[in-house]
Amino acid sequence: MTKKVTGITAQIVEEVAKCGIKLVTSLPDTWISDLIEAFDQDQRFIHVPVNREESAIGLCSGAFFSGTGALALMGASGFMTCIYALTKINYTYQIPLLMFVTLRGSFGDNAKYHVSNGLYLLPLMDSISMPYVIVDTPGKISEISRAYTHSRVMSRPVVVGFTRSVLRGER
């Protein structure tokens, strides 16, 4: 039985569809569980769950060469584990990629074990000149399309970081 997608999740999925993205790769994270389920059930997308972040980078990068728009969806700690793959593959060979990353460890995340993500994620992206946009209100969901286009213009990855309050519909 297919669950009806509503609210923020539906808005995000529609914005991704407007980009022409067909392939979505994901790794589990409780903040994005609704998104993962929505992409998996939506016939407009091919959803591929992966067991390593580097696999998401490889699949999405390969999809680019076939003309297929792709999205890699993961948590902050997962993103931090795949820096070598991004800089070696995507930066070296100028392969665009849209990535959705949870902003674990930021304000609103009360899990103490994610504090290091909050301390290091943004400085890490800055240190490798990774363009990113923060979606911290529902009104910024349209930034997804701008980020996707920018990744194509600059031929490099772009990250869209999501706060818990947006992804989980909290205030």
Fold and architecture overview:
The chain is α/β, with parallel strands linked by helices and 171 residues long. The protein has a single domain, classed as Thiamin diphosphate (ThDP)-binding fold, Pyr/PP domains (Rossmann fold, 3-Layer(aba) Sandwich). The chain is built from 8 helices and 6 strands. A 6-stranded parallel β-sheet has the order 2-1-3-4-6-5, sandwiched between helices. Strand 5, helix 7 (143-154) and strand 6 form a beta-alpha-beta unit. Helix 1 (7-18) packs across helix 2 and helix 3 packs parallel to helix 5 (83-91). The chain is globular and about 40 Å long. The chain starts with 6 loop residues before the first helix and ends with a helix. 40% of the residues are buried. The mean pLDDT is 93.
When the domains are counted, the total is 1
Indicate the percent of residues in helices. 40-55%
Structural class: alpha/beta
Strand tally is: 6
Largest sheet: 6 strands, parallel
Stretches where pLDDT is under 50 for at least 5 consecutive residues are none
- The total count of helices amounts to 8
**Rg result:** 15 Å
Topology of helices and strands:
Elements: H1 7-18, E1 21-26, H2 33-41, E2 46-49, H3 53-65, E3 69-74, H4 76-81, H5 83-91, E4 97-102, H6 115-127, E5 132-135, H7 143-154, E6 157-162, H8 164-167
Parallel strand pairs: 1-2, 1-3, 3-4, 4-6, 5-6
Helix pairs in contact: 1-2, 3-5
Question: Which key phrases capture this entry?
Answer:
46% helix, 8 helices, alpha/beta, six-stranded parallel sheet, Rossmann fold
Task: Briefly summarize what is shown.
This protein is of the alpha/beta class and 171 residues long. Helix content is 46%, strand content 19%. The chain has one domain: Rossmann fold, CATH 3.40.50.970.
